[in-house]
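JOB MANIFEST
job_type = single_chain_structure
chain_count = 1
residues = 226
[input]
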Amino acid sequence: MTLHLTRWRPLPESLLCTSLSRAREALAQRAPGLLLMQLVLLCAWGGSVALLASGAAGALGALAFVAFVVAPLQDGFSYVCLRTARGTAAPAYAGLRVLDNYRESVAAGVLVCLLTLFGLALFVVPGVVFYCRSRFVPYLVVEEGLDAVDAIRESVRLTRGHGLTLFGLTGCGVAACVAGLLCLGVGLVPALALWELGRASLYHAVVLPSETWDPSSRLVRPMLSA
């Protein structure tokens, strides 16, 4: 069967510069919608920080708010950015797909956070490595419907050989956010959106290994949970 991918962009190379370039192009094409979604997300994160500063009860509320509301919203936005990186329709409501696997989105967010903190406690480096290797988890949970543990394992497998690229993306993202804050905070929203789009572009390059990829199928590569 011959598949026609006229609706999809050519597969990008899984390189740092290529991912950043694709991110910039995608943001330029769909800036209003993406920036608005990123602003809403940033406000949600800000609300959790405000709760955290209101005392012990507020801290518990902030943790629950992040785990059950903000993190799934972030996963939904990641999926919208992935569709944008692929060059397909990416309306805001597409992010609601996270509700189809909401429980695993919450569980994955909690697991990634705890394992990253544990790794940071072990001389920092393990935490940084795990954080970078788990960056594909949102796509695997939302789009592929994996459970939290399988999504983490599959993310680690798929990012094998791309650790330095992900580390570079993380470093560039942090630097861009710092620069955005220095510009009276105005640049923070586009910096965060570019960071997310860069990661989505890399995932697009890694998970679409050939021109015969079927957009209606699951991952072409063997799944750990299969």
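[summary]
The chain has one domain: 16-207.
The radius of gyration is 17 Å.
exit_status = 0
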